[in-house]
UniProtKB/TrEMBL annotation:
Protein name per Swiss-Prot or TrEMBL: Endopeptidase
Molecular function GO terms recorded: hydrolase activity
InterPro entries, sorted: MetalloPept_cat_dom_sf (IPR024079), Peptidase_M13 (IPR000718), Peptidase_M13_C (IPR018497), Peptidase_M13_dom_2 (IPR042089), Peptidase_M13_N (IPR008753)
SUPFAM superfamilies per the UniProt record, alphabetical: Metalloproteases ('zincins'), catalytic domain
Keyword Metal-binding: yes
CDD domains with a match to the protein in the record: M13 (cd08662)
One Pfam family in the UniProt entry: Peptidase_M13_N
Similarity section: Belongs to the peptidase M13 family.
Length: 654
């Protein structure tokens, strides 16, 4: 790809000269590509991230298929056998619904609600949906210790808004049809009452859910409780039956974090009030819908017709091998990643990235030092947090051990259940042990990056270190405009509306003066208002949720503005060179826009608008640069241009 973009790192042959960068930077760079590039039938969206993901997927397929003939008993053969169990369609068709029938029979034999709780506990080990999501992380109040978190769950639709908002009425009806179509596939002669039971109960569960703005509030969701306090929240429902059935290590549930306490109270009320047959039908539904991808083509295709086509607009299910690759990566991602790194990662990229990260951190340090709205007291703590950032680049220093995971080539659903049980044991086994700060929460072949506030770390997997985000050999301006802004974005999460509530050691505590926090929030409120006013091209009757997306928007704004400062630092006082007629600033901003190119189906755009904390890509590009003065200087933007934002309305935080 380098030869196409040249040393500039910009594909100038793809620029849409009919759209001025002063009016729409995103479509000036990406408009022709979006218009001329069809979205593949098995995709809901297609762009920079998905193009790289397809390349990584193909590379991983080669690794996995090679593993099918590895020596028996080796880790690689487990990878191959898992893939074989998924791709043997003939065996799956012969089995029909038999793999789930024993569990459905167990549900039919349930005699009381305590048994329902025990069954939901079994679900945790079987990888099936529950009404409580369980996970383990380090304790925000004591970041050197692991703790169990309890999160609201129990819904088959993307989130609670789908059960109440009028704009999702059509989706609700399609969901009802989907439930009604799936029960007969599992051998039930009549599904009418069962369907109504499922829909009514999920709607009631959704009414107890917190909305997606409240669930991202770090303070409100940090409720560290002893088990007797949890029991008081779920009055009249003995949740010990649930966690005892999980077979957790002793003491794992003595103290937990309940992220949405009122949900637990609402769920307990529902559990007391709803009849046993309703709960049994709901349990059956969880088994059927979660197992569908691992059963016959009838199950899988019916599931895709809703979760794929109805929800995202994708007309075609992904090829079997692609779904098999996803299963393997989700189960044994680091076993594959170890080989992916050996075969596809250039170690020189790591050295270049080290320099980029160092310059980004220095740019943040300079920026924080000079902030006019921050007092010295808070500034010292912000700089302390920045100093304690840990960058991880490429791949883990130690790889995950899969020796305790049993896999066979002829039992797909058995493998899926074994994977779930393995993960439960691995996660709950962390309780009481020292924090493993070498652990990664993405595989090296993932096209993404993340910031972890509890670890105060930024992580960049190997696979994202490619064009259009990064190339070690290309001009620095393009690298800083793309991967540099991504680095700045992830560092920026440490200082966004939620990340800024964690200190340099990953502890959730207020390190701000009251005046500084107020000054910070005045700026974030202005950014929220900007995004609330935005209407996506693909969803003309929808608006961006500024409160939901504020964390990512702060990350983008800080990331790009600090990346520019880091680029200047990299020049060490020299003037940015002009290459192929483009100035350094032009290459920087064009690279930024190039990285966000994406074509998206209207259904998927509407779904993401409701649940995704990221803004639509067109606004991740355009709205951010409207707040950055250098953009105006670079393209000579004036009040006559569509992208113009008056200086007084521009937001600068970091």
């Amino acid at each position: 790809m380098t030869d196409v973009a040249g040393t500039t790192g910009i594909r100038t042959d793809e620029l849409d000269e009919s759209v001025r960068p002063q009016d729409d930077l995103y479509r000036h760079v990406n408009g022709r590509w979006i218009d001329e590039t069809p979205i593949p039938d098995d995709k809901a969206r297609y762009g920079s991230f998905t193009v790289l993901a397809e390349e990584a997927e193909a590379a991983v397929r080669t690794i996995i298929e090679r593993a099918q003939t590895a020596a028996p008993g080796t880790e690689q053969r487990k990878v191959g056998d898992l893939f074989t169990s998924f791709t043997d369609e003939t065996a799956l068709e012969a089995l029909g619904s038999a793999p789930i029938e024993p569990l459905l029979a167990d549900i039919a034999a349930i005699e009381d609600k305590d048994d329902v709780l025990r069954m939901v506990g079994r679900f945790e080990r079987l990888g099936l949906p529950s009404f409580i999501q369980l996970f383990v992380d380090n304790d925000p109040g004591d970041p050197d210790a692991y703790i169990v978190f309890l999160e609201q769950s129990g819904l088959g639709l993307p989130d609670e808004s789908y059960y109440r908002e009028e704009r999702f009425a059509d989706i609700r009806e399609k969901y009802r049809e989907f439930v009604g179509a799936m029960f007969p596939l599992a051998g039930y002669d009549e599904s009418g009452d069962r369907t109504e039971h499922v829909i009514a109960l999920e709607t009631a569960i959704a009414s107890a859910h917190w909305d997606n703005v409240a669930t991202r509030d770090s303070q409100k969701t940090y409720n560290k409780l002893h088990w007797d306090e949890v029991s008081a929240l779920a009055e009249g429902v003995d949740l010990r039956h649930w966690w005892q059935a999980i077979d957790a290590p002793a003491g794992a549930f003595d103290t937990v974090v309940v992220r949405q306490p009122s949900f637990l109270t609402g769920l307990a009320q529902l559990f007391r009030e709803q009849p046993l047959p309703v709960w049994k039908d709901w349990l059956c539904w969880q088994v059927i819908r979660a197992s569908a991808p691992y059963l016959t083509s009838a199950f899988s295709a019916t599931s895709f017709s809703f979760y794929g086509t109805a929800l995202t607009g994708a007309p075609k299910q992904r090829d079997r091998w692609k779904r098999g690759v996803s299963l393997v990566e989700g189960a044994m991602g680091e076993a594959v990643g170890r080989i992916y790194v050996e075969e596809h990662f250039d170690e020189t990229s790591k050295a270049t990235m080290d320099d980029l990260v160092a310059n980004l951190v220095e740019a943040y340090r300079q920026s924080i030092t000079g902030l006019e709205w921050m007092t010295d007291e808070t500034r010292a703590r912000a700089l302390d947090k920045l100093e304690k950032f840990t960058p991880k680049i490429g791949y883990p220093v130690k790889w995950r051990d899969y020796s305790a995971l049993p896999v066979t080539a002829d039992d797909l659903l058995g493998n899926v259940r074994a994977i779930a049980s393995f993960q439960v044991d691995r996660e709950l086994g962390k309780i009481g042990k020292p924090i493993d700060r070498d652990e990664w929460f993405m595989t090296p072949q993932t096209i993404n990056a993340y910031y972890n506030p509890g670890f105060n770390e930024i992580v960049f997997p190997a696979a994202i270190l490619q064009f259009p985000f990064f190339e070690a050999s290309r001009d620095a301006a393009a690298n800083y405009g793309a991967i540099g802004a991504v680095i700045g974005h992830e560092i920026g999460h440490g200082f966004d509306d939620q990340g800024s509530q964690y200190d340099g050691d990953g502890r959730l505590q207020n390190w701000w003066t009251e005046a500084d926090r107020q000054a910070f929030e005045e700026r974030t409120k202005a950014l929220i208002a900007q995004y609330d006013a935005l209407v996506p091209t693909e969803v003309p009757d929808g608006h961006v949720n500024g409160a939901l997306t504020i964390g990512e928007n702060i990350g983008d704004l800080g990331g790009l503005s600090i990346a520019w400062k880091a680029y200047l630092i990299s020049l060490d006082g020299a003037e940015p060179p002009v290459i192929d007629g483009l100035t350094g600033a032009e290459r920087f901003f064009l690279s930024w826009a190039q990285a966000w190119r994406m074509a998206i189906r209207p259904e998927e755009a509407a779904r993401l608008l409701s649940i995704d904390p990221h803004s639509p890509n067109e606004f991740r590009c355009n709205q951010i640069v409207r707040n950055i003065d250098v953009y105006y200087d670079t393209f000579d933007v004036s009040d006559r241009d569509a992208m113009y934002l008056a200086p007084a309305e521009r937001v600068a935080i970091w």
